[in-house]
Specification:
The complex is a heterodimer of chains A (about 260) and B (about 325). Chain A has about 260 residues and is mainly alpha-helical. Chain A has ten helices and no strands. The N terminus of chain A is likely disordered. In chain B, the strands form three sheets. Chain B has a six-stranded mixed sheet, with helices on both faces. In chain B, strands 11-12-10-13 form a four-stranded antiparallel sheet, with helices on both faces. Chain B has a three-stranded antiparallel sheet with strand order 2-1-4. The radius of gyration of chain B is 22 Å and the shape is elongated. With about 325 residues, chain B is an alpha/beta fold. Chain B starts with 19 loop residues before the first strand and ends with a helix. Chain B has two domains: about 210 residues, P-loop containing nucleotide triphosphate hydrolases (Rossmann fold, 3-Layer(aba) Sandwich); about 80 residues, 2-Layer Sandwich (Alpha-Beta Plaits), CATH 3.30.70. The chains are: A mainly alpha (about 260), B alpha/beta (about 325). At the A-B interface, helix 1, helix 2 and helix 4 of A face helix 2 and helix 6 of B.
């Protein structure tokens, strides 16, 4: 055991003084999404489920529904539901698996780690939308070969709106994760709270108008139709402020201040 | 061996000659002081043993040094810079605070790769780092869930040393290591310090750090109760005395106004020189079987006395 310090010890001013670049941290956070057993399986399941959407349509949908925009819209459903869980785990695993001890020892500027996690979440949402796009194209080719409609028409806005839904829900997952810092609790509340709010909005008449603005499940359905209007975007903005921005702000504040042990 | 002192970065404090400086660190949880006005410092080329019973405040102090726990009062720095001001601390300070704090679903190799990527260390160093702590390629490919505590300690040491640091901060690194592993780790740390490195090493077992430490800082109930060179502390630790008639000895000591502490091996440690005891015994016509400097036995007695009650408190809390 004599090979420990063969090289010179680095002075504080050089490598150890310069902050770790954000691009490097983002790449590391992306890697961390898939390098654990849980994360890898989640990614595999999202991939398989997306494949499954095309298979279901090819097998059971009427021929005239087998169009590119049909495959694309349905293909986005699994990742819209499951990618946020990956976002939740990205935040919570640091605390439930206690890796925050290593993470924040190596990068004491916690806000940089959080920024990297948010960027990684956005990047994986973009990647999954792009992958779904390619898969939908392949499924459409297959569909037209077997007698489907095979239409390639898709409104450009549907692509961006599809991506927006992915990004909104991944960020919402990250926000819930950062706020609750507990995997099971964050996952359950992520799915349960908006649903409870939807049910309340439907059953209680007085909440009707409020839920039109604050129910993120309702407001984001506007994005599945081409060319969402300004009014629809305003409702999405208001509901996202409550369900995405608020948990994110409170969660970041909590992570920055929380004692790591 | 060349002794390399890190260069002075801008804006560092006056304690440039110390690699780790802790000044009046205090942490209170509610009204309970976990760490109470703790100050000490570590020089390059030395191993400092940070001793105290469980719950004495060792881990809290170390977490405060590493910027993970905000102190209620006081400050600390590494090479004159507060830890949180270091942009990429892994290249200067190797830290192992809890070997179990690793993602169970990640492989050992992956955990080190993530750290290497963060620090900007070539990932080709990872297999070498694993090898250095006695973990082979097969162990590196296994998930940490399957690691024993000893293997996790080795992995944690590999991670701490991956950035080729000048300072090591290790919390109870010998926990879970077998005797051979403890011996190996002592050699590793001794060697690191002999090459100019600085080591701060905590333990609740005196014997464990005694073999490797140059300096000791003893903490009990959040306060520093003894601090100094190991040799000085050993010299001050009193005299071990054993008499044929232990009860008579106890009476003699009491009459002389000396306070002795019974040891487990049938003797008494008295915090004075051997001559005082020898004379008192001769005056009383007492037969002594042993009369010698207490050394580490005395230090252990002192350690137990100084920190007595804390572990009991900890147990019932």
């Amino acid at each position: 055991m004599t090979a420990v310090l063969e090289t010179t010890t680095p002075p504080v001013t050089r490598e150890s003084g310069r902050p770790v670049p954000l691009a490097r941290l983002t790449m590391i956070e992306l890697r961390k999404l898939g390098d654990t057993r849980a994360g890898l399986w989640l990614l595999i399941i999202i991939g398989l489920a997306t494949l499954g959407t095309s298979a279901i349509m090819l097998g059971w949908a009427p021929d005239d529904e087998l169009t590119f925009d049909g495959f694309f819209a349905f293909g986005l459903v699994p990742s819209a539901v499951l990618l946020p869980v990956l976002g939740i785990l990205s935040m919570t695993a640091e605390w439930s698996q206690r890796t925050a001890l290593t993470t924040f020892t190596l990068v004491p500027a916690r806000e940089r780690v959080i920024a990297a996690k948010l960027l990684a979440g956005v990047l994986i949402a973009i990647a999954s939308t792009a992958a779904t796009f390619v898969l939908a194209a392949a499924a459409n080719l297959l569909g037209s070969a077997t007698g489907g409609d095979g239409g390639w028409d898709i409104a450009g806005s549907l692509i961006w709106q599809g991506l927006a839904v992915q990004v909104i829900f991944v960020l919402m997952g990250l926000g819930f994760g950062a706020l609750l810092l507990n995997s099971p609790l964050a996952i359950v509340l992520f799915f349960a709270l908006p649903t409870v709010w939807s049910i309340l909005g439907e059953t209680i008449k007085a909440l009707g108008t409020a839920s039109q603005w604050l129910d993120i499940n309702i407001t984001t359905t506007a994005l599945s139709e081409a060319n969402a209007t300004g009014g629809e975007w305003a409702r999405i903005g208001v509901s996202a402020a409550v369900w995405v921005l608020l948990p994110l702000v409170l969660g970041v504040w909590r992570v920055l201040r929380r004692e790591v042990s | 061996m060349a002794y390399l002192r890190p260069k002075r970065p801008a804006g560092r404090s006056r304690h440039a000659e110390y690699m780790i400086t802790v000044e009046h660190l205090t942490k209170r949880y509610g009204t309970h002081p976990a760490v109470d006005d703790v100050s000490f410092s570590c020089e390059p080329g030395t191993v400092t043993g940070f001793l105290g019973p469980n719950g004495a405040g060792k881990s809290t102090t170390m977490r405060m040094i590493c910027g993970l726990t905000p102190p209620t009062a006081g400050s600390s720095s590494v090479s004159g810079v507060p830890y949180r001001k270091l942009g990429n601390p892994g290249r200067h300070v190797g830290v192992l605070l809890d070997a179990s704090a690793q993602h169970a679903g990640r492989t050992g190799r992956e955990a080190l790769t993530l750290a290497a990527l963060t620090m900007g260390v070539d990932t080709r160093e990872v297999p070498r780092a694993l090898e250095r702590v006695g973990l082979n390629a097969t162990a590196g490919k296994r998930r940490i869930k399957a690691y024993s505590l000893g293997m996790r300690q080795r992995l944690g040491l590999a991670l701490a040393m991956l950035g080729d640091p000048a300072v090591l901060i290790l919390d109870e690194p010998a926990n879970g290591l077998d005797p051979e592993g403890i011996y190996w780790m002592r050699g590793l740390l001794r060697d690191f310090a002999d090459r100019g490195g600085t080591v701060l090493l905590s333990s609740h077992l005196l014997r464990e750090v005694e073999a490797v430490a140059d300096k000791l800082v003893v903490i009990g109930a959040g306060k520093v109760v003894a601090e100094g060179d190991k040799a000085d502390l050993l010299a001050q630790s009193g005299t071990f005395v054993r008499a044929a008639d232990q009860e008579a000895l106890a009476m003699v000591l009491e009459r002389a106004g000396l306070k002795g502490t019974k040891t487990t091996d049938g003797g008494v440690v008295v915090p004075v020189g051997s001559e005082t005891i020898g004379r008192a015994a001769a005056d009383a016509g007492l037969v002594l079987l042993e009369l010698r400097p207490a050394g580490s036995g005395g230090l252990e007695q002192m350690f137990l006395t100084l920190t007595a009650g804390d572990s009991v408190k900890e147990a019932v809390r």
